[in-house]
């Protein structure tokens, strides 16, 4: 039997504090009835002996400290799930907002999920093709991996997210594309950005395989904390109950972390770096570690979290902690963006730590690992030559250094850059890489063995 409490000890922002509370538990859902009869939802975010601190989803405006009635439901937040969620648009709490009615739920799952036993995990293999050369060729996205995108304010990460949703597909030709789904969660986005996402998915015809969760900038802050958990719960349902391969895109994790900081501050917690709570690492890990594959399931969950680095600072706590937890990163660069290059992916600080285990013979093409290594090495040499040219002038460079400069320009405009609606298959990406390597003398290609070199190399000009 649930107990209803009358009155509140304190109201602070979107937080209410109750005392003399018995048998409450962390993250329990709470129903709050106001004087007007309006019922709002809240969630227990902290317990101190007989004191419960509750975050109210709809805010505390108009709430009375003496007449408010609070009932603890005895349940955590659960969302309704069925395969019908494909093609649906939900708010940050998992409630449909597309005008198509409520979901006919087969099950209701706790949004916090169950931790995956490390022994039950299966090592990620094979890859997901995004159709973007800089990702597929050099930082390949492996199924079951978590590969974040580090961006900055004003950079086209929203367009990149849309392009990945529109173009992503399973790699193997014999696999059923109906077994592939995308869960897209947006946190703290403006209304025009949310409309852009929805219209883009609809116009491209991919909406039927996408589950969308939208938390707007004017929605409650606590909802922002819940949104990625709802999205990942939906992904776990599709992957582990229906054996689907699910790609989860979370944008913008910076908005999520700032919401975490705001809630922490309102609770009076001692701040850590840049004012963020000291537990932000474990909190992010509780999200990112929900990606993976299980030995007794055919499905997989692959994550692409997108975050904007404040002041383009890659050492900021949000990208710093994200980099520790995840298996690589794709970094967007402002200087490439100013050159008009889309997507402005700077390849040298970008990497995919699981790439080596999901490419090559049997997965992509036998030459892929060596081509990727050679492109990295050659482009790194370009940066050295650029530094030298800035001192002595490009006209004074040796002939081979000038070839590297030409290679660098062609690499940025011909390999990294591509049109928003250009979907390159893996074969095309590797062929472009070989065409660029053909601009350099054979003896400069030291990362390629003779068999691969003789098979694919063909000298080209710019």
From TrEMBL:
Quote the InterPro entries the UniProt record gives: ATP-synt_VA_C, ATPase_F1/V1/A1_a/bsu_N, ATPase_F1/V1/A1_a/bsu_nucl-bd, P-loop_NTPase, V-ATPase_su_B/beta
This protein's UniProt keywords: ATP synthesis, Hydrogen ion transport, Ion transport, Transport
Q: Specify the superkingdom.
A: Bacteria
Which SUPFAM superfamilies would you find in this protein's record? P-loop containing nucleoside triphosphate hydrolases
Question: Which intervals hold domain ATPase F1/V1/A1 complex alpha/beta subunit N-terminal?
Answer: 11-74
Ranges of residues in domain ATPase F1/V1/A1 complex alpha/beta subunit nucleotide-binding? 131-352
* GO BP term, pick one: proton motive force-driven plasma membrane ATP synthesis
Matching Gene3D superfamilies, A to Z?
3.40.50.12240
Q: For the ATP synthase A/B type C-terminal domain, which residue ranges apply?
A: 357-457
Spell out the molecular function terms from Gene Ontology: ATP binding; proton-transporting ATP synthase activity, rotational mechanism; proton-transporting ATPase activity, rotational mechanism
Database matches in Pfam families: ATP-synt_ab (PF00006), ATP-synt_ab_N (PF02874), ATP-synt_VA_C (PF22919)
What family does the Swiss-Prot or TrEMBL record give for this protein? Belongs to the ATPase alpha/beta chains family.
Q: Enumerate the NCBIfam families for this protein.
A: PRK04196.1
| Physiological role | Produces ATP from ADP in the presence of a proton gradient across the membrane. The V-type beta chain is a regulatory subunit.
HAMAP family in alphabetical order: ATP_synth_B_arch
UniProt protein name: V-type ATP synthase beta chain
Source organism of this protein record: Petrocella atlantisensis
The top of its lineage is:
Bacteria, Bacillati, Bacillota, Clostridia, Lachnospirales
């Amino acid at each position: 039997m649930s107990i209803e409490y009358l009155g509140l000890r304190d109201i602070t922002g979107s937080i209410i504090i109750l005392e003399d509370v018995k048998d409450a538990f962390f993250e329990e859902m709470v129903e709050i009835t106001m004087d007007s009869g309006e019922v709002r939802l809240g969630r227990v975010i902290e317990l101190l002996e007989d004191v419960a601190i509750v975050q109210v989803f709809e805010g505390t405006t108009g709430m009375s400290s003496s007449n408010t009635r609070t009932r603890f439901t005895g349940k955590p937040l659960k969302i309704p799930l069925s395969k019908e969620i494909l093609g649906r648009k939900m708010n940050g709490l998992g409630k449909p907002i597309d005008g198509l009615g409520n979901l006919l739920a087969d099950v209701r799952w706790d949004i916090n999920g169950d931790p995956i036993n490390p022994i039950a995990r299966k090592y990620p293999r094979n890859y997901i093709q995004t159709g973007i050369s800089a990702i597929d060729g050099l930082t390949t996205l492996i199924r079951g991996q978590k590969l974040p995108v580090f961006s900055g304010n004003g950079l086209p990460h929203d367009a990149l997210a849309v392009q990945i949703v529109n173009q992503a597909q399973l790699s193997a030709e014999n696999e059923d594309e109906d077994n592939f789904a995308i869960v897209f969660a947006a946190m703290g986005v403006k209304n025009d950005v949310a409309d852009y996402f929805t219209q883009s998915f609809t116009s491209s015809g991919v909406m039927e395989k996408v589950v969308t969760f939208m938390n707007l900038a004017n929605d409650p802050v606590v909802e922002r904390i819940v949104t990625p958990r709802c999205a990942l719960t939906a992904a776990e349902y599709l992957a582990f109950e229906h054996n689907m391969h699910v790609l989860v895109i979370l944008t913008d994790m910076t908005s999520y972390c700032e919401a975490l900081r705001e809630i922490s501050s309102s609770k009076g917690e001692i701040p850590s770096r840049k004012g963020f709570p000291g537990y932000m690492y474990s909190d992010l890990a509780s999200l990112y570690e929900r990606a993976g594959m299980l030995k007794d399931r055919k499905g997989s969950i692959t994550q692409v979290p997108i975050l904007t680095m404040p002041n383009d600072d890659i050492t900021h706590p949000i990208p710093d902690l994200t980099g520790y937890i995840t298996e690589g990163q794709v970094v967007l660069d402002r200087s490439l963006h100013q050159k008009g290059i889309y997507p402005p992916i700077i390849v040298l600080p970008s990497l995919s730590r699981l790439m080596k285990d999901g490419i090559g013979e049997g997965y992509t093409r036998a030459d892929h690992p060596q081509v990727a290594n050679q492109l990295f090495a050659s482009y790194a040499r370009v940066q050295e030559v650029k530094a030298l040219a800035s001192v002595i002038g490009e006209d004074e460079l040796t002939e081979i250094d000038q070839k590297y400069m030409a290679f660098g320009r062609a690499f940025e405009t011909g390999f990294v850059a591509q049109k928003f609606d250009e979907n390159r298959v893996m074969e095309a990406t590797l062929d472009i890489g070989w065409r660029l390597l053909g601009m350099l003398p054979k003896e400069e290609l030291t990362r390629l063995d003779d068999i691969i070199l003789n098979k694919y190399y063909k000298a080209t000009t710019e």
